[in-house]
Amino acid sequence: DYPILILDNNSTLxxxxxxxxxxxxxxxxxxxxxxHQNNLLFxxxxxxxxxxxxxxFFLIVSDEDEPNFEGISQLNKRLPEMKDYxxxxxxxxxxxxxxxRQSHIWDTKEYSAGPEAIKWFGLTGNYASGAIYNRKLLVExxxxxxxxxxMNEHRIYPHLYMNILAAGSTKTAFCSEVVCxxxxxxxxxxxxxxYFGPYSYGQRLDQFVSLRNxxxxxxxxxxGDFDSEGFFSxxxxxxxxxxxxxxxxxxxxxxxHLMDQKLITNSFxxxxxxxxxxxxxxxxxxxxxxxxxxxxxNKYRAVYEKNKIIRSQxxxxxxxxxxxxxxxx
Length: 329
What we know:
The protein is of the alpha/beta class. It is built from 12 helices and 8 strands.
């Protein structure tokens, strides 16, 4: 009922497997294989989907995950009635025997374009598998060109940028249908050696600025006066999301590099406030912004202190378990 496209990002790994897929695609209707001439990195590979996919909609399934064809077929029947939806987030479940990391079963919920959609749809989650895009509509709106022009800014989370643009201008929705299964990651990050990457404190600051700019775009593009209430509602939500990442999720890594949890959290609260000072109507919102973000910071400091030993032990045991699994395969 739908075509399958395998995008090979000029991979230097699993070349025999990709050759088998290429040969199979030549003799299988509905199975397509494209190998990029150069490695475009994740952001370029994501953008290419808007240029090479022939169908109006496309679903992303990362290479470590597996499509659920039954769930895809169920949702595919509804897509012809969703031509005015720019982006959908479908559900994902873990493969049997695998730990749940990114998986989530969404309640079906639809959003009209606006602040609530940006806040609850556009800024929810960072994982790409299960995302569905209305390629035809988003290209007509010029959002692929916007991504291309702003690629350097949104190279880590280009799909979040597209979700935010869609949420500001089109209908969006979470869908309960399970369209893919989450597989085992190829590795678990090391607290020390993997600090210098997308989860470092510095990178998190850069990501925050890029997503602040992303949520600003729909408000700047809207007709009429600037909706400062709507913008700052989204800004607080973004700040909350990154305070959780910085003060709790990634803090094991930061402490491995001898960073103080309390000072990191306090500095990030100050950073969030500094990034809002140039926004329209900041003076009206600055007191409530400081109060809310301080409370969030205190919350995640307490949660981290309560759970940090358990989290450290989990990372160590998971690295060992995945190493043993890899060796057995």
